[in-house]
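Write out the bound-state structure for VIB.
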Amino acid sequence: MSELTCGTSRIVGCRFSVFPMTDRFVEVIMDALKSVNTGKVWIQTDDVSTCIRGRAEHVFDVTRAIFAYAAASGVHTIFNGTYSIGCPGDTEADVYMSEDSERLNREIGKNADIDTACQFALYPLGTDHYMDVIYKEVHRAKEKGTFAGSVHYASRLDGSISKVFESLEDAFLHAIQSDSSHLVMTAVVSAHSPSAKPRP
Ligand SMILES: Cc1ncc(C[n+]2csc(CCO)c2C)c(N)n1
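---
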């Protein structure tokens, strides 16, 4: 896992939904939200999505764990999230920025091994070099072994929940080291899809 930092008070946020494809979706979503330790992040859930804000490592830790617990239901489950840093005016939850960096949900047991497919996209805002930033992070995913091809408007990552979320976090943390002032990353992660993966 990357140990990069992003300045002293750079709040990271993620707005996401999980979609477990079962009649029992209310139970799966609510149980996943309840199973996770959210003590180090600002969190708000409504009828459409959940928003988490705080230090980068906790935002990734909590979103990964919520998806893992939902996917542990065994049903086809989708995580659809938008991560952001540097959003002008995002200071409300600065209190969470003084938490230490120990991850509260590091241990997600066997769920870390659940196989997933992901499509993610980086949007480095406020820089002319945005394509360089994107290519660098695609290269990083290739080196890690999660990169599974380019599709229109996104890059594909295949691998376990732990590998894929590690790649997402790595891409995000490295991309914000660029001169981009505001970075957005979208990610759709799928587990237990009944559809066959496309041939590479
Ligand atoms: C992470 C996450 N947060 C909120 C929703 C929205 N949502 C849809 S059904 C349901 C449970 C009963 O209201 C909720 C909260 C979601 N899908 N995923």
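---
The beta strands are 12-20, 42-45, 50-54, 77-85, 115-125, 147-151, 154-160, 182-191.
Residues 1-9 have pLDDT under 50 and may be disordered.
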